[in-house]
Every structure is written in C-alpha cells, then in structure tokens.
Specification:
Elements (H helix, E strand, L loop, with lengths): L1 E3 L2 E3 L15 E2 L2 E2 L13 H15 L9 H9 L10 E2 L4 H11 L8 H7 L2 E2 L11 H8 L8 H7 L5
Parallel strand pairs: 5-6
Antiparallel strand pairs: 1-2, 3-4
Length: 161
Amino acid sequence: MLNLGKITLELPISLVSEVNTIQLEAGNKPINQDWICFGFKDDISKLTTVINQLCTQIELVNTDISSADDMINALTTKKLLPGAYTIKLGCETKMFRYIIDKFSIYFTDLTLANIEKSAIFYSNQDKKNKPITQGNLSSSKKGVVEPKEKTTIDKIFKYLQ
C-alpha cells in the first residue's frame, strides 16, 4: 500500500509505475491546443429540445450542410477544437445573435469572442466560407430592435425554464 498524503493506493509499491507527461511537437514547436468550452450549465435534454425546435421552426441551422446534433455537440463539449465542426446557419446573423443572447444565461462562456475563436459558425449569406466573427455578431445587433421571429424564439426558449 502506498500512502500519498490524502490519497492511498491499494497497490504494492512494486506495481505502481511512473507517470510521464508527453508534450506533442510539430517540427520544433510545441502544439498548442486552444480548446474552447462554452460552459453549458443546464439540462442537455432541454437544450436538445430547444435546438431542435429552433432548427425546425426558424431554420437555425442549414440542414443541407449541418445538423442540429452538430450544434448541440459543439455547444456542450468540454474540449471543442476550433474548426471541429462546420455549422452553417439557416437564419440571418441578427437572429442568431438574438438566440446567443437568449442562451447566455445557460452558459458560462458563450461569448461573442468564443464564438469567433471556435471557428465553426458560418453565416447563411457567406459565399466565401469564412467563420462568423465577433464583429459580425456585434454589428448585427446595432440598430436592430427585434428579429423577425422574436415571438417564436421566445416561446421556444420556455423549454429551458
């Protein structure tokens, strides 16, 4: 038995092997994995219902290119690698921004900056396939009082309450 302060291993010392850490390298440079986590802090089944309803009723996601499951997985994963998904929006960017604002109380880090860093969200109007930026999302709120589908979106979000 090995006693390590607060931790006691029920193995003889002869069976305990040394733990080594490995640093991955690309050429001579260490690989820097800048994971993103949006920090969802509620019931995933409720989020699934909301995303599926948003996709069905206002075409949140262009289902010819992306899926509701991609959106759910991206928003709930603990270690999202930038560019890991391609989520093409089916709705206008200003509607997406409204949805992000509505989601913000259910996430710890669903920020405009993290959306840009994730490099997974693409506008439905973008023909160049560049990810949505923080600037796109910021400017989509300026001068906009309410998105066209505000009432529908607000009703759908009641599933998270």
